[in-house]
Amino acid sequence: MGEDASSTPVDTRARRREVSMADVAAAAGVSGQTVSRVANGRSNVDPETRERVRAAMNSLGYRPNSAARALRSGRFHSIGVIMFSLSSYGNTRTLDAVASVAADAGYSLTLITVESATQSDVSGAFVRLAEHAVDGVVILIETHRLGETELALPSGLPVVVVDSNAEYAYPVVDNDQALGARLATEHLLDLGHESVVHISGPLESYAAERRRTAWRETLEARGARVPEVLVGDWTADSGYELGRGIAERADVTAVFVSNDQMALGLIRALHEAGRAVPGDVSVVGFDDTADSSNYWPPLTTVRQHFDWVGEAAIRALLAEIDGDGPHTERLLVPTELVVRESSGPRA
Known about the structure:
Elements: H1 21-28, H2 32-39, H3 47-60, H4 66-73, E1 78-83, H5 89-104, E2 108-113, H6 119-131, E3 136-140, E4 159-162, E5 172-175, H7 177-190, E6 197-200, H8 206-221, E7 230-231, H9 236-247, E8 254-257, H10 260-272, E9 282-284, E10 301-303, H11 306-321, E11 330-333, E12 336-338
Parallel strand pairs: 1-2, 1-3, 3-4, 4-5, 5-11, 6-7, 6-8, 8-9
Antiparallel strand pairs: 10-12
Helix pairs in contact: 1-2, 1-3, 5-11, 7-8, 9-10
């Protein structure tokens, strides 16, 4: 009586053998050394052979062992990014530029967000990135905590800090916040306004502090009265709440707002109170967000080049990774005033 076929064990989970470099070499009719050169991006392979090897790789589904290559070269072609928040317009724009430039250079990103810029959170993020085997780190934390003397960044990895006043032995890249605030304030004064009210971002923000300081210094340099600072939280809602108080003040004819979202809330409050923009009150924002030209009226604002900042940060980090550093200079990317219909001469 024949053996019952159902009793014969069958391994239905058998995996297909992984394609090796020798398999590619046999299919392409070249040596294993030639396949290695192509896989590692070496230039000493003639174009016709290179294309034949690549075609064999694609046909067989060959995947180079990047981990082994990293162990040989000491490079992982990965960059870590530590961020405090993904919700801010500037951070997301900068991260987009960082990712784009890193990809062009052949690097992937490992992103870690931290709840607060404290010593324990930042140190913990570094430990996690070290476990992911990154070649360097970009830090995007925009709070005063990063500048406190007790906050130390672990050594052993190239680091670039974006948007910070921190005094570290690392490159620091930022938009020129002070220049933008000065241009905005001077623009309103040049239109004939006797003074300029300022709606600031949060007190713990370096960017808000630099804009606030430059606004005050510009008024003082021009001999203009310096009003009390109004502090928002970057949201349109906070601009609206502060704007309701501004709308009741007949003495206010010009407002410089620390970002476009708060400016949007301010303009709404002014409209609701029957105050014309710019007929009664001129408004200038900061950032030049994608929607600012579609506000009503279109918003005069300060343009920040977040893409330039992200690109400069990655270039500086790659220079450190390649051994051309460390460079400790601070790089400021120029800002510019974009004049639209929300600002006009004092009535």
